[in-house]
Amino acid sequence: MLRAKNIWVAGGDPRQAALAELLADDGHAVHTYALEQGEGTACEPSMAGADRADCVVLPLPAVGPDGRLNAPLAAGGHELAEILDALRPGQLVCAGMAGEELERMAAERGLVLRDYFAREELAVMNAVPTAEGAIQIAMEELPITLHDARVLVVGFGRLGRALAPRLRGLGARVWVSARRYEQRAAAESMGLGSEGLDHLPDWLCSYDLVFNTVPAPVLGVEELAALKERALVIDLASRPGGVDMDAAAALGVRVIWALSLPGKVAPVTSGRYIKDTIYHIMEGSDL
User: Fold this and answer.
1) CA–CA–CA angle 68, 73, 77 (5° rounding)
2) Phi, psi for 137 (deg, rounded to 5)
3) What's the sign of the alpha-carbon dihedral 186, 192, 197, 198?
4) DSSP of 208-267, one letter per residue?
5) Whole-prediction pTM value?
6) Across-strand partners of 211?
């Protein structure tokens, strides 16, 4: 664990509120901003003093759909410039899914920006609460048990590898659809079925439940039309997602786009994963 630091946490959802509490528990001097509606969070009235921080932590994602700081727990909206202008050149800023605009603004101000969501250790650990949250949604939404259900997981990266074995452990009959041969071989080594992505429409008709983990168009009109009646699709991919939502609506296919599940189903655990990743970044920065 790092020696005591001065850390600011600005904006975010319950993950960041939990992160601030966990950092304080580790003995750091923690200041929060734009988290007023977080449970048990006492926020600073402004960013004054943030320029003395060893690290400033921004949310995941750092930027909201409106281009401002992603701050759903704030009492009001906050511009990115408001946050960054309060900092000093050379200061370490850690943000999740930073994006080109934030990268540009940070570079203009001479800030050292690190994207903690791009770190492999966080991506691997985040797959766990995402998989658990996805299973929770399926159990709530399906009229059948996962036991003996025919389930397809599209994609076999970090999330697919966390999700598929958990589904199988509940008694589901699980197949994996992946583009690469080695991914399909890995699935088969776990006792899962496997298919390529090239001819999805030819064999989608038998599944009760389809999870997509690929953040690129994979379930379009042809694929959605091939699904059996009353099949459920849960899209776990980050924006832009992998399902044609307009086509799904026109075809009457039920799709749930489940974004940011770690922050919704396990904010404290997710905050701990972010904390550990921030520590790794700070250690690598010799702070």
Assistant:
1) 30
2) -60, -45
3) positive
4) SEEEE--SS--B-HHHHHTSPTT-EEEE-PPTT-SB-HHHHHHHT-EEEE--SHHHHH-H
5) 0.87
6) 153, 234
| DSSP secondary structure letters along 49-116 | TGGG-SEEE--SSSB-TTSSB--TTSSS---HHHHHTTS-TT-EEEESS-HHHHHHHHHHTT-EEEEG
Question: Cα–Cα distances in Å, from 47 out to 14, 87, 271?
Answer: 20, 9, 22
> How far apart, in Å, are the Cα atoms of 21 and each of 36, 40, 53, 57?
14, 9, 17, 13
Token duo for residue 131: 């998989």
Question: What six digits make up the tokens of 149?
Answer: 């259900």
Render each residue's pLDDT in the chain as its tens digit; 287 residues: 678 999 999 999 999 999 999 999 999 999 999 999 887 678 999 999 999 999 999 999 999 989 999 999 999 999 999 999 999 999 999 999 999 999 999 999 999 999 999 999 999 999 999 999 999 999 999 999 999 999 999 999 999 999 999 999 999 999 999 999 999 999 999 999 999 988 899 889 999 999 999 999 999 999 999 999 999 999 999 888 999 999 999 999 999 999 889 989 999 999 999 999 999 999 988 75
**Both structure tokens of 280:** 């790794």
**Alpha helices per DSSP H over 89-197:** 99-108, 120-141, 158-169, 181-189
Comparing CA positions, the residue from 82, 33, 39 lying closest to residue 59 is: 33
Kindly state the tokens that stand for 71.
């701050």
Contacts of 121 (CB under 8 A, 6+ apart): 276, 277, 280
